[in-house]
Amino acid sequence: MQRKYYFEDFALGDVRDIEGPVVTKEEIIEFASRFDPQYYHVDEAAAEHSPYGGLIASGWHTVCLCMRVMCDRYLLNAATLGSPGMEHIRWLHPVRPGDRLRIKLTVLEAKISRTKPDRGSILHGWEVFNQDNRLVMTMEGYGIFSRRQHGPAT
Amino acid sequence: MTTIKYYWEDFIPGWEYESPPRTLSAQQITAFAREYDPQSYHTDEEAAKSSPFGGLIASGWQTCGVAMRLMCDGYLLQASCIGSPGLDEVRWSKPVRPGDALRLRSTVLEQTPSQKDQGRGTVKFRWDVLNQKGEVVCTITARQHYRRRTPAQ
Fold this sequence. Notes:
The complex is a heterodimer.
Chain A lengths: L14 E8 L2 H11 L3 H4 L1 H4 L11 H15 L11 E7 L8 E13 L6 E11 L5 E12 L8
Antiparallel strand pairs in A: 1-3, 2-5, 3-4, 4-5
Chain B lengths: L15 E3 L3 E2 L2 H11 L3 H4 L1 H5 L10 H15 L11 E7 L8 E13 L6 E11 L5 E12 L6
Antiparallel strand pairs in B: 1-4, 2-4, 3-6, 4-5, 5-6
């Protein structure tokens, strides 16, 4: 199947700015009830007495919301072969109900596979900001992509 | 609120918890992926057959979510955890397929008292997610902050 984005379309230093969603209270509670039901993610009244002084989103929820916008922006149109993993995930500032997220993706590394020259690995730096331009999360993630041209590794 | 059973002091290096298994169905895999990670090998059983994975696989983030939930049910909701500054590493080493029964093994790697707050400390964990064959499908290295039972002197 022909895709729009291949390994070659992610050049070192490329930046993609993506508008993210507004995070609602209902969504925060719903996600956390399923995956991370710590009281400061699910119980508004109890959360007021937490170190955060109110309800905050599970860090996993922030990651998942970013994953979704990344899918919509380009990943669903890319020759992706999955991801081996992520590194240096930092939850720097709480995400609260009503926050509007923005994601800045930067290509930090682009490497053709030595064992499988038809593909390559892209390392993306993720920076997630809220509506006040405050950095709420950073992360580095690997993605494997098919090459447009199946030449030998150079 | 729940009574707290585990404080920072309890998470000594080598401390280990292993959860009961939780099975992930095809319906759960596609429902999660439609919301957060709608790549075709996570959402579409037919399309997934011609993917590099040869069939439907769970989003890696769902595996993380299941691990987190197993941890909450196992001990975290009874612990003095006040959040996490982040994860050093997440590795998805094997695909998770419909019907796989996942369990969490949580191991303490390091226990560090806070420099600036005598009432808390940090614990570094390794969280392994295993399938029914005992294969590690995901490994996470994470840090969490916990309140101490007794403040440092």
